[in-house]
Amino acid sequence: MKKTKMMLGLSLLAVSGLILVAADHVDAPSVTGNAADITDMYTFQGQETSNLVFAVNTQGLLSPNATAAASFNENVMIEINIDNTGDNVEDLVIQAIKKGDKMYFFGPYAPSTTGTSSSIKTSAASGSVAISKYGATPVTSTENGMKFFAGPRDDPFFFDLGQFQAILGGTASGFNNPGTDTFAGSNVLSVVVEVPKSMLGTAASLNVWAETKKKQ
Questions:
Q1: Is there a contact between 140 and 131 (Cβ–Cβ < 8 Å)?
Q2: In this structure, is the dihedral angle defined by the CA atoms of residues 2, 114, 197 and 96, taken in order, positive or negative?
Q3: Model-level pTM?
Q4: Taken in order 5, 200, 96, 77, is the CA torsion positive or negative?
Q5: How far apart are CA 157 and CA 22, in angstroms?
Q6: CA-to-CA distance for 194 and 117, rounded, in angstroms?
Q7: Whole-angstrom Cα distance, residue 41 to residue 14?
Q8: What is the distance in angstroms between the CA of the first residue and the CA of the last residue of the chain?
Q9: What DSSP assignment string belongs to the chain?
Q10: How much is the pLDDT for 4?
Q11: How far is 60 from 188, CA to CA, in rounded Å?
């Protein structure tokens, strides 16, 4: 059973068991804009109600001009962690890593180690997809009952930063309806995987978080 060791980089997105309630679009200079920079993670029921969708967005605030040059890094793995026992420790992982012009996916499977160090169980490979190019028709693939996508997308996170700053400054009492989308026109690089719920255990609820991990 071949394994590739990965170590946690600087961009741990969320703490185990907590619900993500804010976007992380501005990080330290060493992280911002590179392949290890996670902006948001989303988990929701798929169009097929028996499936669950996991989406991890990276490299936020990409302008249209910068998006074409942005790319995933072969030395950075995106890992989705799933706790289905309520102890805030990952019971299952889904891993995505670039090789050439494709994104390869592994899992969901029970990891041999938990926490900040991970290895890739290559025998748990679940599928791959060609990485979509900016401005081109999105490419998806379906393998082993799962669906996959990797590539640039419009940043879906909505936040009115100007109004938020006005509230903090005492010149406004609340948000406008509708507000102004500060992130309109900016892009992210997304990894999306749709998984049958039957692969995730039988728990009524899941704790989910994402990490990027750099190869050592």
A1: no
A2: negative
A3: 0.85
A4: negative
A5: 9
A6: 25
A7: 9
A8: 19
A9: --EEEEEE-S-----TTPPP-S------TTTTTSTT-EEEEEEEE-SSTTEEEEEEEEEEEE-HHHHTT----TTEEEEEEEESSSSSS-SEEEEEEEETTEEEEEEEE--SS-SSEEEEEGGGEEEEEEPPPTTSPP--EEETTEEEEEEEEE------HHHHHHHHTTS-SS--SS---TTTT-EEEEEEEEEEGGGG-S-S--EEEEEEEEE-
A10: 41
A11: 5
Distance CA 112, CA 5 (A): 11
Q: How many CB atoms lie within 10 A of CB 139?
A: 15
Entry field: residues in the chain: 216
User: For the CA atoms of the chain, what is the radius of gyration?
Assistant: 18
Going residue by residue through the chain, which has 216 residues, state the pLDDT in tens, using 9 for 90 and above.
334 444 433 333 333 333 333 456 666 555 555 788 899 999 999 999 999 999 999 999 999 999 999 999 999 999 999 999 999 999 999 999 999 999 999 999 999 999 988 999 999 999 999 999 999 999 999 999 999 999 999 999 999 999 999 999 999 999 999 999 998 999 999 999 999 999 999 999 999 999 999 987
> Which two tokens mark 107?
């899992």
CA–CA dist 101, 1 (Å, integer): 25
Residue in this structure with the two tokens 């060791």, named with its chain if needed: 5
Gap between the Cα atoms of 114 and 4, Å rounded? 15
